[in-house]
Amino acid sequence: LDFDSGKFPDPKGMVEQLHEMGFKVTLWVMPFVEKRSAAFKEGREKGYFVKRVTSACHPYEEQPGFFKWWNLPSVVALDVTNPEAVDWYVSRLRRLQDLYGIDGFKFDGGEPCFLPKNPITSKALSYPSEYTHLWVKEVAGKFQGGVCEVRTGHKTQDVGIMTRIGDRFSTWDFKNGLQSIIPTVLTSGLLGYPFALPDIIGGNAYFGRKPDTELFVRWTQVNALMPAMQFSIAPWHIGKEAQDLVSQAMKLRKKFVGDIIGLAGETSELLKPIVRPMWWLDPGDEATYEISDQFALGDDIVVAPVVVKGQRKRDVYLTAGVWEDLDKPGERIQGGQWLLNLDAPLAKLPCFRRIHQEEA
Predict the structure, then answer these.
(1) How large is the angle between the packed helices 83-100 and 38-46, nearest 10 degrees?
(2) What residues are paired with 342 via a beta bridge?
(3) How many helices (H) and strands (E) does the chain have?
(4) What is the pLDDT of residue 60?
């Protein structure tokens, strides 16, 4: 594993320059190897890849199991049931860190759906998702605690690593657009994956459909008080208004970075979600059960983004207790009720803070 010298003539210098600018550098990797690579030649000789039977006439003739993945040439999959293959792969990632100062990795892939039909592994898979479990636990897990992410998981709640939710379309809808972000991140936390990385802000711009200013800004606001944010489309590529309003949302996030880090520390001990469904604040309050467009950061901050195109007002539910609008400090609001038709212009992310008895 190494950089393409034609595309990256000085990777170490590039990484050093990025570090000087304050960035951390991660590399995108997956458990797949191209046939034309040196890694394939070496790994094949050592039996490090998933195999398959290539001919019904020769059922005992096992060959590397090639398959198509994304827009790459045919690839084979690392045999994660083979400890020697895992050590071989991990050592090459460590080498990249040592040589170039790489901070971490984006561990892509890992789902069994990409494997060849009837895959043959060093140790038989007990169930298909065991491949996912081993990829996250035995490979990505070797780098937990750093700047790393995975996009899949199965019985890997004990691996301390960011878990990215799936690719999103640049749309508003609930199926796979902006409205799906809050429910998906909340579900991730409840399933024991609290270090949720929402997908790219604004969506992936698939099928030539790019986000406009409104969608991009509202998407940023949804993510602003979640565990992490991920930009792929630069705000200034959307426009000046988007850039200004995204900067405003980032300033709000900066105020709560300490809270997010504190909650992350608590989560690492207790596995409590960092962002929580509204019913978490008051499990007996039936009004909270179907709320899918609000969430709580910890127990004391309620976030109510706008997720409907063109909407400039929205209703907000606050659980029992005393609260205040972050934009109107000092004005007490009694909870246990809906606040109807609140102003929510494009520049505003509605947020409310619990007032504790000693503050009242």
Answers:
(1) 150
(2) 314
(3) 8, 17
(4) 46
